[in-house]
Amino acid sequence: MKRLAIVLAASLLLCGCDATPTTAEVASALDEQGPQQVTLPAAEIFGSEWDEWVPLCGTQQAERVGHPEVAQNSVVLRASGEEKVVELNPSGVRVCPVHNSGQWRPTTDKTTWRREGGWQLVS
Questions:
Q1: Is 86's pLDDT higher than 90?
Q2: Torsion angle in degrees (nearest 10) through CA of 80, 84, 85, 89
Q3: Which residues of 35-45 are buried (b: 16+ CB within 10 A; e: fewer)?
Q4: What residue ranges in 28-95 does DSSP mark as E strands?
Q5: Which of 84, 7, 16 has the alpha carbon at shortest distance from 51?
Q6: Among candidates 33, 24, 25, which has minimal Cα distance to 1?
Q7: Is residue 27 a contact partner of residue 16, using CB atoms and an 8 Å limit?
Q8: Distances (CA, A) of 85 to 25, 26, 32
Q9: DSSP secondary structure string for all residues of 21-44
Q10: What's the confidence (pLDDT) of residue 18?
């Protein structure tokens, strides 16, 4: 996993690309860790350059964190005043429903994901 993160980070730095992960990259990071259930820090899924993240499961939550345009099943990543929105394809990765959605969490905190067709955030 660390090797993948280093390769992705290096390629993003070289091309000057946006470091916001896609649904495919999130699913791939989870696939590498286990077949059915995975527990790991959010930074290993969304990237170590982010300090905080928040799963959004509806328009009220999106409005509360300042992103009223965000669709359901999205994540907002934040670091050094910068925020990026990741709209996840629910057939690959779902963050809804989850306890405490709409609340900022440190990316150093562990997250648990379970495969249910695609990957589902459990906690």
A1: yes
A2: -120
A3: eeebebebbbb
A4: 37-41, 52-56, 74-79, 82-87, 93-94
A5: 84
A6: 33
A7: no
A8: 14, 13, 23
A9: PPHHHHHHHHHHH-SSEEEEETHH
A10: 66
Return d(Cα 113, Cα 123) in angstroms, integer: 7
**Radius of gyration of the chain from Cα atoms?**
14
Residue type, 70: V
Answer yes or no: are the C-beta atoms of 84 and 12 closer than 8 Å: no
Taking only the tens place, the pLDDT of each residue in 3-16 is 444 444 444 444 44
Tokens found for residue 75: 């994540």
Rounded-to-integer distance, Cα 101 and Cα 49, Å: 21
Question: Helix, strand, coil: what percent of the chain each, to 5?
Answer: 30, 30, 40
